[in-house]
Write a structure and sequence with these properties.
The protein is of the alpha/beta class. The chain has two domains: about 120 residues, 2-Layer Sandwich (Ribulose 1,5 Bisphosphate Carboxylase/Oxygenase), CATH 3.30.190; about 80 residues, 3-Layer(aba) Sandwich (Rossmann fold), CATH 3.40.50. About 30% of the residues lie in helices and about 20% in strands. The protein has eight helices and nine strands. The strands form three sheets. Strands 7-1-8-9 form a four-stranded antiparallel β-sheet. It has a three-stranded parallel β-sheet with strand order 4-3-5, sandwiched between helices. A hairpin with a 5-residue loop joins β8 and β9. The protein is globular and about 55 Å long. The mean pLDDT is about 90.
Amino acid sequence: MGRITKNKKASLEKLVKGKAYTLDEAVELVKEITFTKFDASVDIDVRLGVDPRKANQMVRGVVSLPHGTGKEVRVLALVTPDKVQEATDAGADYVGLDDYIEKIKGGWTDVDVIITMPPVMGKVGALGRILGPRGLMPNPKSGTVTMEVGKAVSEVKQGKIDFKVDKFGIVHTSIGKVSFTPEKIKDNALEFVNTIVKLKPTAAKGTYIKSIYLSSTMSPGIQVEPKSVVD
């Protein structure tokens, strides 16, 4: 059995085993049980009553968190020359087309989000084998394939995230940093979970939100009472 560190022991002592906390309690606790020297991310895991293997029970969407994620998101805009200035002004970190396509073919994927335009999807689509497994492939449903390039870049920079249920029926994402106030973490959690609720598949039967857990990068998970989150 592995040795429990002093900080982990202190974290566990603050949690009541088997207790489901209200969201208000959980956002306070996640700050109290985090002892990292860096500004840890605050993560949320929502287990859904769906079968992701069935197409009519897939849950996927986008959400703009009111207070952002606290992370510096690196954005690559693959655009035609007439959209370069628009993407640059909106804050894209890298802007271009053919030169970056060649870099990606060579193995470069040092970005978090790629935004592009419908007219160039023919070129970008050829990168599917590289970008797909890394979750970087632009998709119209997530708003990353659009003619409104500047708007898309701005939204991503301000905290718009793309999420998708995994094969275990869990949706996981970061909703802020431990340095955020409890109110900001709560606002982001509410926005995220209630967006998932709105995307409930009609084919999903029984309890939809089965469990919610809040944690930071290296903290134990805090079970959250779903009724305290869902409007």
